[in-house]
Structure formats: C-alpha cells, structure tokens
Amino acid sequence: MSTAILTGTPVPGSPLEGDLRSLGFDVRTAPDAATALSLLASAPATDRVALVDQRFVGHLHALRLALTDPRFPAAAVTGALTARPEARAALTVALTTVTDAPATGRTDRAAEAPAARSGGAGVVTEAGQPATHTDPAASGLPLADRVAAAVEADGTPVQRPELGSLVAAVPDTPADRAQALDAVAAVDDEAVRLRTAVKARDGFFTTFCISPYSRYLARWCARHGLTPNQVTTASLFTALIAAGCAATGTRGGYVAAGLLLLFSFVLDCTDGQLARYSLQYSTMGAWLDATFDRAKEYAYYAGLAIGAARGGDDVWALALAAMVLQSVRHVVDFSFNEANHDATAAAATAGGEEGKAVVGTPTTALSSRLDSVGWTVWVRRMIVLPIGERWAMIAVLTALTTPRIVFYALLAGCAFAACYTTAGRVLRSVTRRAVRTDRAAQALADLADTGPLAELTARVVRRPARALPGVLPLLIAFAGGAAAVSVAAFGPLDSPVLVLGALVYAVTSGIAVAHRMGGALDWLIPPVFRAAEYSTVLVLAARADVPGALPAAFGLVAAVAYHHYDTVYRIRGGTGAPPRALVRALGGHEGRTLLVTAIAAFSTAGSDLPTALTVLAVVVAVIALTESIRFWVSSGAPAVHDEGETA
Fold first, then answer.
1. By three-state DSSP, how is residue 359 classified?
2. Does pTM top 0.85 for this prediction?
C-alpha cells in the first residue's frame, strides 16, 4: 500500500482524497510540515509516499502520471510529489530542510495573473508565464512544491511528466479554484489517457490499421484487471498456435495461421498500450515483450518450414536465412544506438564547446528535411519493414501463397531494409566528429560476446592492437568472418581443413576487440560477429545435405540468438551485460563457431551432424535460459518500458 500525506488547508467537498484512494493510496492528513515529517517517518520503508496539497485541482490522470509511474524514484506536478523507497531518504532530508527553513516571500505568481494549470514543470499562469520555484523555502508555495525543489537541489532527479492539456494546479482563491475547475471540465482526461497510450512514433500499418481499436482493447484489459505481462503471454500463445496452423501444410491451415498472426500482433500492440494506459511498467515486462516478439516470429518461420516440408518443399534453408538476416538487422540497430546515444563532440568547434553532445550530421540534416514532407515520413518508416509491416506481409502471403514465396519476399524486403538503414548509419558515423564514451565502448565490447579463445588472443596482442588505426579493427573482424564462412562454403566436407577457417576467425576476432571500441565504425563489429557465426552454421548444415541438419541448425541459431538478445535487453535496462562466466560457459561466438566446424569436419559422412547440432542447441538453450530467467525474475533493476522495434 502506498501512503499519501495531505498537507495545507482543507477544502470542503474536494474529491482529492477519493481520487488518491482510487490510485491505491492510504490517505493521511498533516496540518503542518512537522506532522507531515512525522507521518513520513511512520510510513513503512518499502512504501511509496506522496505529499499532496489539499487545495490541488486537476485531472485524475495528472495525479496518476505524477504519483504512480514505477520508473522514476521521484516525480512531481504542481501541488503533488511522490518518492519511491529508493528516494525516501532524499524526501526525508528535503522535508526536514523545508520544515526548518525560514519563510521567505512567495515566487509562484507572475504579473498578478491567477494560476490555472501546469504542464508538469510548475504553475503556469493565465498570462502564460511560468512561475519561478527558485527558493525551496518560499512560504507561499505549496509544501509539496517546496519539498520537490529541495529534493532536486540535493541532487535527486525529480521527474515532471508532460501533462499537455491536463490540469494540475493549486489555486489560492475561490475565483482561482473555479477557473481551475472549469479548465478541468473542459478537457476529457480519459480521451487524453487513451491517446497517450499509443506510441507517439509508430509504423504506418500499426498507426492506421491497429491502434485505432487496440487502444480500446487495452482499456478493456485494464478494467478487467489484466496485466501487460498476461497480454504479452496471450500474444505468444496466439503466435505459437498460428505457427502450428502453418505447420499443417494445408491451405486452410495457412489462412488460419495468417489471421492468428495478425491477431497476435494486435495483442502485441495492446500490451504496450495497456502498460502506458495503466502505468504498469516493469523490467520483467520489457524483457518479456521484447523476447517474446523474437520467439513468436522465429517460431512462425519454423511452422512455415514444417508446413512446406509436408507439401514436399524443403525451405528450411530459407527459414534459417530469414532468421539470420533478421537477427543481424537487430544487432545493427542495437549496436548503433548503444554506440551513439551518449556520444560527445570530438573537439571544440567554432561557436561550440568541447564535450557538447553531438546534434547531427549532413545525413541527419537531410533526414530532417525529408521529415518536413509528410508523406516521406511514412514511406521511410515502411521501407525499413518494421515489425508491423513485416508481420502483415507475412500473414497475407501465408494465406494467399506458399511458404517459399513468403520467405523470398521476406528475404528481399529485409535485405533491402538492412542495406538502407546500415548505409545511412555508416554515413552518419563517418561524418560525425564524436568521442565515444567509456560506457558506450564497454557496451559494444559486451555485445561482441567474446569467448575464451578470442579473449586470450586479445590479451596477447593488446599492446599492438591499441595502435590499430581507424577502420582497421572492423576490416580485420570482417576478414576473419569472411574466412570462416568461405571455408565452410567451399572447403572439403568431413575434413580438418574446415577448422582452419574457424581458427583464423577466432584469432582475428581477438585482434578486433583487443582495442577500446571507440572508432567511428566499431559498432559494426558485433553485427559482423553475429553474421559470421550464424552464416557458418547455416552453410555447413545446408552443405551437409543430411535429413534434419537444417532444422537442428535452426534450433541452434535460435538458442544462440536468444542469448544475444538477452545481452541487449540487459544493457538496455541498465543492468549491464551477462556475467562473464555465462559467456565463457557458452564458448563465445568464436568458440561456438570453432566447435560447429569441428563437428562438421569430424562427423561420419555428415550423419552425426543433426544429432550433434541438436545436443549443442539444447545445451546452449538450457544454460542461457536458466541464467536469463534467474536474472530477470530476481533482478532489482528499475522499472522500464522498452518500446522495442518501431511497429
């Protein structure tokens, strides 16, 4: 139970106490700051605590945004402040400071205009002038506002949500209160709540074909007590049933699979909208949402491959190629974003300062100009084939055509999207003068998934590797990956020669990561590793031409991809990479590549390859899943909501 402490002058007939109770708060009243401090001390240490002025007038959703969002230790709007357990100490210190501080003149009025509403940063006057909350001890301000200012002054960030048209005010006079109540009545906060439940930036298909009704489904779920995680799980089961229908290999099964895949996507949109609608954010929810998206899509690929096999068409190689391409696309996105979201300018420029955050490049300037032409925004969002457009295409083609055509279209579309997005990012990187932070460089090193063999090589060559200029580490990584894939593709099967390419790959991988990954294009090194490892498995399984080799390879790549996605989501959630012990236990990308090539080289006429790959897939899956589930279930990471891939 959360605790809300009402302060200030009581207002007869105010619905505030009922509103707070509806938000899950146990409401107590404090006639003065000293009593508020005593009530704060008596509240359980594990409780969220809020200070709310009894004169508060505003929308219920404004209070919900300020007082119930689990992502922020402290948050506030005018007249209301909340602190989660991790910010309780700062709240206590601030309240003590304000209680003991001498009174000074008020600073919350501008041009004698009556206060009417707030946009989250403080009182906004009718004249449109923001009030100045510069002195935490200003006696005219609501106690909650003075304490919020003191909390910030002490170094604890206070989140102030964007309220837009929502009202949050603390009027002083009856006339001000009447004006604020009129402002509340003029805005339907439920309509605002529904509108803001939808992502501000989304794909064409989701924006115009899904969100117009999925938001109402999200509201229905909220009113019936369903959680985002339950909706996410329902989406997963729906997609798995769709994959099962596709696996029947019948036209009716394909039609049902397409319809169920679309409904799974509706639920996939609904879970995020439900999280935003009800502010039910969690680290576990973000992980489930992102992980299940990949599981649904790749399970559906497998279903299509099984269905095609029932009809006499073997498309397992295409299914595995689609999974490889999509996984590499994602790691390109992750690596680029991690490398550049906190990059700083390399040196002082004319009229600028060293260390200033990088704002843009000629490429981003062109992108901004294109965005000013409305239709180009939607075209550019569609051609990258995000999840909404991709799943819609897969669903329609499944119902109307064959699995082979589905995979041909998917590979062509994803290949074009990959070239388009990667080319733009490369141009941004080479034209941007930036210094990568240590955090970003470490994130790239973690995404590399370096195992014991490459780690040992990196230690040996660390000193000369640090002197490698510019793009050379990337070229070395690319050359090693190309060697591994080329030998797998053209080397003699059932021969130790296959292992040579993997050994070269292990050595070059160690050289590539031996330096600090701060180069302009070093963010491409993890995607090169992913492409090399996955493609080597694909090529060897396809060349073996043994029944069951490609399905086993599909399972192995899926298990390894899960480990790589899990690494990304840990970094995104601010919890750091998986423990090195896990990475070493899984062998790292170069160790697994070497092991798979050794299995292919020494298997008896390839007949042992499917069994060996299946065993390896099971081992990787068990180790990765066990550690991943243990971590996410027990993680004390702050609540987040991962918007994930633009839908």
1. coil
2. yes
Answer for the pair 36, 95: CB distance below 8 angstroms, yes or no: yes
What whole-number distance in Å separates Cα of residue 596 and Cα of residue 606?
Answer: 12
Burial (CB count <10 Å: 0-12, 13-18, 19+), residue 55: buried
Which tens digits make up the pLDDT trace of 444-497?
A: 999 999 999 999 999 999 988 888 888 999 999 999 999 999 999 999 887 888
C-alpha distances (whole Å) from 26 to each of 2, 48, 72, 630 are 6, 10, 20, 33
Decide if 486 contacts 520 (C-beta within 8 A): no
Q: Name 434's bridge partners.
A: 345
pLDDT at 607: 67
With contact defined as beta carbons under 8 Å apart, do 638 and 71 qualify? yes
β-pair type (25-29, 2-7): parallel
Check if the beta carbon of residue 274 is closer than 8 Å to that of residue 228.
yes
Task: Check the CA dihedral 118-119-120-125 and report its sign.
Answer: negative
- CA angle, residues 383, 315, 248, in degrees to nearest 5: 100
576 close to 567: Cβ distance less than 8 angstroms: no
DSSP string, 404-420: HHHHHHHHHHHHHHHHH
Phi and psi angles of residue 25, each rounded to the nearest 5 degrees, phi first: -100, 140
How confident is the model over 212-260, as pLDDT tens digits? 999 999 999 999 999 999 999 999 999 999 999 999 999 999 999 999 9
Name the residue among 434, 425, 444 with its Cα closest to residue 517: 444
Position 566 scores a pLDDT of 94
Is residue 576 helix, strand or coil? coil
450: closest CA among 540, 519, 512?
512
DSSP of 195-239, one letter per residue?
A: HHTS-SS--HHIIIIIHHHHHHHHHHHHHTT--HHHHHHHHHHHH
CA dihedral (185, 187, 191, 195) in degrees, to 10, reads -160
Dihedral of alpha carbons 582, 585, 590, 593, sign:
negative
What are the structure tokens assigned to 332, written together? 């390109």
Query: Which segments in the chain show pLDDT lower than 70?
Result: 101-139, 343-374, 433, 604-607, 636-638, 640-647
DSSP 77-129: ETTEEEE-GGGHHHHHHHHHHHHHSPPB-----STTPPEEEE-SSSEEETTSP
Cα-flanking dihedrals φ and ψ of residue 438, to 5°?
-60, -35
Closest CA to 150 of 174, 166, 163, 134: 134
